[in-house]
Amino acid sequence: MLSLYCLPQSCKKSELLRRIWRLLKHWSRRILACRRGWAHGIAAGFFALLLAGCGGGDPLAAGGGGSANADSSGPVVLLNHAGFTINYDCSLHSALRYDYTLRADAGNLTRPDSYMFDPTLPTGCGQQTSTSSYASVMPGWDRGHLVASNHMDNDADYLLRANYMSNIVPQASVLNRGIWLATENLAECYRDLAPVRVLGGVVYSSSANDYFLISHGIRTPDFFWKLILTTEPGTTNLKVIAWYIPNSNEVAGLDSYLVSIAELERKLGVATVGIDAPVAVKAARPGVSWPLPAGCLLG
Question: Residue 112's pLDDT is what?
Answer without folding.
Answer: 87
